[in-house]
Amino acid sequence: MKNTFTTFLTLGLILISMITMNAQKQKMEHTALIIIDVQNDYFPEGKMTLEKSEQAAENTRSILEYFRKNNLPVIHIQHISTNDGATFFLPDTEGAKINHLVLPKEDEKIIVKHFPNSFRETDLLNYLHSKKIKNLVITGMMTDVCVEATTRAAFDFGFHNMIIGDATATRNRELNGEVVKAADVQKSFLAGISALGSLYAGIINTNEFLSK
Fold first, then answer.
1. Fewer Cβ in 10 A, N or C end of the chain?
2. Stretch 44-63: mean pLDDT, rounded?
3. Which residue is catalytic, options 37, 41, 144, 166?
4. What is the dihedral of CA 203, 41, 43, 121, to 10 degrees?
5. CA angle at residue 182 from 98 to 212, to 5 degrees?
6. Is there a catalytic annotation at residue 144?
7. Is 113 marked active-site?
8. Which is catalytic among the residues 41, 113, 144, 166?
9. Per annotation, catalytic residue among 2, 41, 134, 146
10. Is 37 in the active site?
């Protein structure tokens, strides 16, 4: 009798697990992860170090592991600077390489861009359409430049966007001779892009996303 109960209990737990996994998969259907410019020049000792870049990259890695575990699409965006006067992400340099924390696997899409907007003069839009993607989970750097430009463009193309706030990073800015701290830039741009009922993107942190 005891063995029979244990068997039924085990089968019940397996069934619940399968139902939960299936519901989670359906919830993430037509969803892809975009990792923007997590490249060596943004890290300590790089040519354009960002505030909390390592923390943002660790959080991005956690999100990436979730997508890999669930066999969901992942797109890595890599910026290569081709404009005159560029000082970082220069072609064929160590700083332009994707950081080891989020190093792409062979079967993951890599898109090279030359502008802040990841859709501009790339095949990103066609690729997303080919995979029937409707929803984007966005991470990366810099929050107020390439992340913002890509997110706003994605909205204009009809995608529903979610930014993992603590998986993005920026640096101090200057306006009219006054320094604006990176934390204030980060907060302001995330607040702006999620205004009007998360019009351009919803904002969530890593732990919240992984616990959903």
1. N
2. 98
3. 37
4. 10
5. 65
6. no
7. yes
8. 113
9. 146
10. yes
